[in-house]
Design brief:
- The chain is an alpha/beta fold.
- The protein has a six-stranded parallel β-sheet with strand order 4-3-1-2-9-10, sandwiched between helices. Strands 6-5-7-8 form a four-stranded parallel β-sheet.
- β9, α12 and β10 form a beta-alpha-beta unit.
- Bound molecules: D-glutamic acid.
- D-glutamic acid (DGL) binds next to α3.
Length: 267
């Protein structure tokens, strides 16, 4: 059981930012990744559609005989977690929102938070709800629907990117924000520009670190951490053009993407 892979999925290549951190924190683990690049973006669609897609991705990942499922997508975590858990059956599921909320609320200097994410994530109100339950931290949120297409296009810097980011973030200032949650797993690719615009005083937090930590905790709790020293096996699948996904993956991994990407058809 402990040698089985961790199954990780997203609507596209954004979830690879979570994979990167999981490899960092859990170097012995085998991984199977699926990005539904043929149907991205999910964040602009309605909840019923997102739930349907999420179930299909979970079915594919579950068929790979995984020991843990990581939903490396805020949109599916916000809208379709119940559906994912019901398809996953006995396989434990880690989402990206609750680990992020626990982590952000545990940073003592953060008293006021801003959350950015896809339209579906922000309109679900899931971050606000969970933050309210956890702490008295104030929270404002903003959807940024153009960020995902930018990252999937490989556009992560330059004048146009900067203008678009400024346009969405102009209400987020250091006067009323100590921490910014990147509530979408694509957004870390834009983090250098976001940091530049917002300045050093606002702490930027993304899904990778807290989610990898949570995955580690769940594996340890279930006694299924892989302790073997055999080189880990990584399998990456997308539902559309593999060449483009590979280019973006290489960029996200600073040229050291640890595998090949294969195309699959769902269903
Ligand atoms: N990476 C997904 C997320 O974290 C992107 C969603 C999309 O497909 O719009 O929300």
């Amino acid at each position: 059981m402990d040698k089985l892979p961790i199954g990780i999925f997203d609507s596209g290549v954004g979830g690879l930012t979570v994979v990167k951190e999981i490899i960092e924190q859990l170097p012995n683990e085998n991984i199977v990744y699926l990005g539904d690049t043929a149907r991205i973006p999910y964040g602009t669609r309605d909840n019923k559609t997102i739930k349907g897609f999420a179930k299909e991705l979970t079915e594919f990942i579950n068929k790979q005989d995984v020991k843990l499922i990581v939903v490396a997508c805020n949109t599916m975590s916000a809208v379709a977690l119940r559906e994912i858990e019901s398809v996953a059956g006995n396989v434990p599921v880690v989402d990206v929102i609750s680990p992020m909320v626990n982590y952000a609320c545990s940073i003592s200097e953060i008293k006021k938070l801003a959350v950015i994410g896809t339209r579906a994530t922000i309109s679900s109100g899931e971050y606000e709800k969970q933050i309210k339950i956890k702490s008295g931290v104030k929270v404002v949120s903003q959807s940024c629907p153009l960020f995902v297409p930018l990252v999937e296009e490989g556009l992560t810097k330059g004048k146009v990117v900067e203008l678009i980011i400024r346009n969405y973030l102009n209400g987020i200032t250091k006067e009323d924000t100590d921490g910014l949650i990147l509530g979408c797993t694509h957004y870390p690719a834009l983090a250098p520009v976001i940091k530049n615009i917002l300045g050093k005083e606002i702490k930027i937090i993304d899904s990778g670190f807290p989610t990898a930590l949570e995955a580690k905790k769940v594996l340890a709790k279930n006694h299924i951490l892989n302790k073997s020293n055999v080189k880990s096996k990584y399998e990456f699948y997308v539902t559309d053009n593999t060449v483009r996904s590979f280019e973006i993956a290489q960029r996200l991994f600073d040229g050291k993407f640890p595998g090949k990407i294969k195309r699959v058809k769902l269903g």
